[in-house]
Amino acid sequence: MSKPSLTDVILRRCPVTGLGVDPHAERFIKLHAVVAVVTFLVGVVAAILLALTRWQAVHLLPADWYYRLLTAHGLNMLIFFIIFFEIAILYFAGPVALSSRLPAPRFGWLVFGLMVAGAVLVDVMVFAGKADVLFTSYVPLRAEPPYYLGIILFAVGALLGVGHFFAALVVAKREKSYEGSVPLVTFGGLTAAIIAVITLLHGAAVYIPTYFWSLGLMNMDPQVYRLIWWGLGHSSQQINVAAMVAVWYLLAGLTVGAVVLNEKISRWAFVLYIGFISMASAHHLLVDPGMGPAWKVWNTSYAMYLAVLASMIHGFTVPAGIELGQRLRGFVKGRFGWLKKAPWSDPGFSGMFLSLLIFGFLGGITGVTVGTEQINIIAHNTLRIPGHFHTTVVGGTALAFMALTYYLLPLIFRRKVAFWGMAKLQPYVFAAGITTMSMGMTFAGVFGVPRRHWDISFSQAPFTMEFPPAVDLLMALVGLGGVTAAIGGLMYILVAVKSVFFGEKLDLERLEPRMAGVPQGVAKLPAQVHSGPAAEAVHEGGTPGTVVLVFVFLAVFVLYYFTNWKLLSMIWKIG
Amino acid sequence: MEWHTAVVSPRGVWWKPAGRQERLWIMIAFAWCMVLFAMMPFWHLKGGQNPSGIRSRVETKAFAVRVERFIQDYQVGEEAGIPVVAPPPGSDVYLQATMWAWKPVLQLEEGASYVLHISSLDVNHGFSLYPANINFQIVPGYDYGLEITPNSVGEYKILCNEFCGINHHQMLGKVIVVPPGTTAGAVGGER
Ligand code: HEM
Ligand SMILES: [Cu+2]
Ligand SMILES: [Cu+2]
């Protein structure tokens, strides 16, 4: 895609995408992705046991191990798996997407080493029972000091990794490895990276004092801790959103040649994420005693919901780009011919599209609703909360990353995707499981069922307390959906591990359409650039299918949102 | 015109006006975001449920003393070793969270208003009133004073829905809502 340059000498020219790949960048993509999968495995094993414990009829784990594995699950999934994968994505979105060299390969080892050392230290402390504080570690709950040190090491590593990405952008620009502006995918990666800096600075501001506090050297105010901790905790979710949206754009382009409707609009939408992120910590403090209503209203709406607006924009431009891409490939029949004829058996496509649907319809709508100042009164710390975020960061981000893996395997690892039949099925199993579990959690939460709770039968409490029988059914859905999702997760791990370590080598020069183990976008990359009268004609026609989709979405959103106000209005008066 | 995917570097001027459908969607989405925003101040003005409260810092020791005095003033009985307290309508009510108990048991009147002060003496706890499904974060060192008006007679439970240590799931309290006028016998009652 760019002209040969000096750096070409050290780069491998990818025969499929035409991108120049620095072997060092490639190595770090591999390393970070492999560790991500290992931490995901730890998280999935914990998840099965947690789901089978919350399913009250099974109630598998003893109390101490439930809380310990809940801690391990939160950390290994939300922090280690996601961030290791994101650093891998930054190596792609920087040097690879720009066909440039990695500025400092040795520095890459430092980043990797710090992150691994931090993660190992944290996991050792957690599994040794020295940090039963859940991943939020709200003071004055106290873990042993090395736990906080582990988090700090990991965060410093990640921060340096982000710095390396910025350096790669500078080098690419200076050495003119690309012409024009950076591609949208890189812009999305840049967005995620900028938010990551904001996030990790909050992380330093909270974990370094907490480390000293754990050593008995200083005081920590519990409310201030919550405020700054969520400056880290929520902004990091915005990294995940930005990275996920970038992956949507990337996969949409690779799988069906989805076009960017309008570069200006899509980039503005990313900029909105950056502008209004650090306010989002308010989401978690809506029913806290430390802050007043004006602060809550302004901050939780991220300054009038401009970040939500950004997501709603991407929620249009991504499917519309896919629709146009499909129409340009000749699938022009009716409103939805493009959708019916989409490559549903390409896990890179199905995973991406399911991620889009789950994130939008379930994650986005529930998130905005429970994150409304007053509605939070009927949702805070109930199972509605994990019900919500398992449809954003899991059904959305994690699933998008899985989908991307099916393209990384052939393009970066240069291996066929192993267990191809299973790989094709995997996104559906994972999506079905997560959706079922999250629905179970969300509706159980409406009855007031708490999250982070070992025994909702209250067998050892001073009073008796029973939830209605419907809750038993919903918790069974949590259990069954959770196990299904975990099976989907294990399928992913099997495919990834087999392909990477024992997979069949793939010669990208010798590809045929419809090869087993090769996603169709790799076997035959759809056209990435369109022009001429035929393309003009397709653009004239617009995206009638997507228009229907987004209005259905809006209708569901409005209905769910106002139903919740109605529910709220029925409880006691509170002020 | 030329169109490309998101992996292609756009060349030349890409700062172009949005398409018709895209523009329409952005306008609708923006309007909807304004509705989302406006609902919150609107509910502060017209709605009956807001998490505002009277918020202040409080020393944990001072709060514990205040709870004891409250119990002495209005205690009417005991259940499962926890004092049952029936404060007069309109009064300030104190509820203390510790690992792993809510103290005292409250007896309130339907339709009467109280200012419910909740705080923790040790770690974070979660106030979750079942089956009304009312949830607040309880942070040590902070007094959350919420004006509440129970709207139906019955027995309510207070769950803890913030992890507060190994016996977190045993932490269960109780609120009894009685018909109006039933608290008459309590000491220091004011009407
Ligand atoms: C593989 C399928 C997964 C299943 C079956 C699953 C299941 C669960 C369950 C049952 C809980 C406990 C809820 C509670 O009792 O309060 C939980 C909590 C959680 N999960 Fe997952 N999960 C999965 C994947 C993930 C992923 C991929 C992430 C993050 C990227 C994630 C992030 C979390 C977080 C942050 C919590 C809350 C921990 C806490 O409350 O301290 N989960 N999950
Ligand atoms: Cu508690
Ligand atoms: Cu608790």
Describe it for me?
The complex is a heterodimer of chains A (575) and B (191). Chain A has a two-stranded antiparallel sheet. Chain A has 2 domains: 19-233, Up-down Bundle (Cytochrome C Oxidase, Chain A), CATH 1.20.210.10; 264-282 and 293-506 and 518-575, Cytochrome c oxidase-like, subunit I domain (Cytochrome C Oxidase, Chain A, Up-down Bundle). The model of chain A has no long low-confidence stretch (mean pLDDT 92). Chain A has 17 helices and 4 strands. With 575 residues, chain A is an all-alpha fold. In chain A, a hairpin with a 6-residue loop joins β1 and β2. In chain A, α4 packs antiparallel against α5 and α11 packs parallel to α13 (420-446). Chain A is 68% helix and 2% strand. Chain B is an alpha+beta fold and 191 residues long. Chain B has 2 domains: 12-49; 54-178, Immunoglobulin-like (Sandwich). Chain B has 2 helices and 13 strands, in the order βαβαβββββββββββ. In chain B, the strands form 2 sheets. A 7-stranded mixed β-sheet of chain B has the order 3-4-7-13-12-9-10. Chain B has a 5-stranded mixed β-sheet with strand order 2-11-8-5-6, with helices on one face. The longest helix of chain B is centred in the N-terminal third of the chain and has 27 residues, at 20-46. Chain B starts with a strand and ends in a 13-residue tail after the last strand. Mean pLDDT of chain B is 92; it is low at 186-191. Chains A and B meet through α2, α5, α6, α7 and α8 of A and β1, α1, β9, β10 and β11 of B. The structure holds protoporphyrin IX containing FE and copper (II) ion (2 copies). One copper (II) ion binds at residues 97, 100, 125, 160, 164, 168, 171 of chain B.
